[in-house]
DNA sequence: AAATATATGTTGCACTGCAACAAAAAGAGC
DNA sequence: GCTCTTTTTGTTGCAGTGCAACATATATTT
């Protein structure tokens, strides 16, 4: 079930999550090797914490989910630095309307505009990449004499699993 | 120079700003009268502070721009409450990617998706309403089995005045 | 005028995000 | 190996966001 113009992915509740997390880590590793970037233990743990859920997490939630005793937990700044690294490498997105972060499972090219679908009920986040959306936004921007760079598109609503279930 | 599908407005540096602010206040007043809502002095001052610039302002910036001696300035919570009121009535938008707020000059219908164009150089924010964008986003959402509600679209880039000037 | 609803003030706190400097760890060059 | 350099992480501290909970004041209604 594939389309030419758009690809949409919403995490099904019963999907093989271990595998999708493992795949994402593997992808991150090979990508960092290819770019001579260092996926350090902390960065890896932050990514793993985000991959363990499909919900956007704030910095403090990430800290909590990284485990270890309270005294051993990294400071917020450490998390933000790891997130900065992961974002620069396209492994993590920031959900602006939530002040939170989510692991990227989409493997899109950098610069590709991504539409985030935020379920208001279960909190899960889907990604929909659409070339037509990108084109429409570009032309609308240019009609206003605007040179667009990084579009942020976030849509709140109800996902199919919550509506049907 | 008008289009059928999209209307774009980027504030020109030399536009008649007094008038655009006055108009917006007048619109806010008549709208509140029509809805039996109260445009109290504080709410009015918050709106005026936002109208005095076309840049998104944070809560503290709004407080500073509301004037008065430091001791007389309202607390942040007061600002947030006024912003909540103004947002509910479509007079103010929140720019999610900036954690800031901007007065609405667009007079669009509530629920209409608005595209915000954020100039990275001068900080001004333009609005572009586009029916085709709305349609494209809706169809992309539905392709993912998603029922969309409130879309957030923010595009960072360079406005025409900054590029040319 | 009293009762009710709405708006604002006060206090307090959890979280975001980062700057500036210090220390530790990893890589590069000899 | 060992030093030098770069990168990463730790520590401290702070400005800003956003709101909860309760108290007080101001409007509106009856």
Verbal overview:
The structure is a homodimer of 165-residue chains. By secondary structure, chain A is an alpha+beta fold. The first copy, chain A, has 2 domains: 92 residues, Orthogonal Bundle (Arc Repressor Mutant, subunit A), CATH 1.10.10; 60 residues, Dna Ligase, domain 1 (2-Layer Sandwich). In chain A, 41% of the residues lie in helices and 22% in strands. The first copy, chain A, has a 4-stranded mixed β-sheet. In chain A, strands 2-3 form a two-stranded antiparallel sheet. In chain A, helix 1 packs antiparallel against helix 2 and helix 2 packs across helix 4. The longest helix of chain A has 19 residues. At the A-B interface, strand 1, strand 4, strand 5, helix 5 and strand 6 of A face strand 1, strand 4, strand 5, helix 5 and strand 6 of B. The structure holds a DNA duplex (30 and 30 nucleotides).
CATH class label of the largest domain in chain A: Mainly Alpha
Give me the count of strands of chain A: 6
Q: Name the strands of the widest sheet of chain A in spatial order.
A: 1-5-4-6
Q: N-to-C SSE series of chain A? A: EHHHHEEEEHEH
**CATH architectural grouping of the largest domain in chain A:** Orthogonal Bundle
């Amino acid at each position: 079930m594939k389309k030419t113009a758009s690809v949409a992915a919403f995490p099904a509740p019963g999907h093989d999550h271990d595998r999708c997390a493992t795949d994402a880590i593997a992808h991150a590793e090979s990508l960092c090797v290819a770019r001579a970037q260092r996926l350090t233990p902390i960065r890896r743990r932050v990514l793993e914490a985000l991959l363990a859920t499909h919900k956007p997490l704030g910095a403090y939630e990430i800290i909590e989910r990284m485990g270890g005793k309270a005294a051993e937990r990294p400071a917020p700044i450490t998390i933000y630095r790891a997130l900065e690294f992961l974002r620069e490498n396209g492994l993590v997105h920031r959900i602006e309307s939530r002040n939170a972060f989510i692991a990227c499972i989409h493997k899109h090219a950098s610069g590709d505009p991504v539409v985030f679908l935020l379920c208001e009920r279960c909190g899960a986040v889907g990604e929909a990449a659409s070339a037509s959306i990108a084109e429409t936004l570009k032309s609308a921007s240019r009609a206003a004499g605007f040179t667009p760079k990084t579009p942020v598109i976030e849509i709140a609503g109800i996902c199919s699993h919550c509506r049907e279930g």
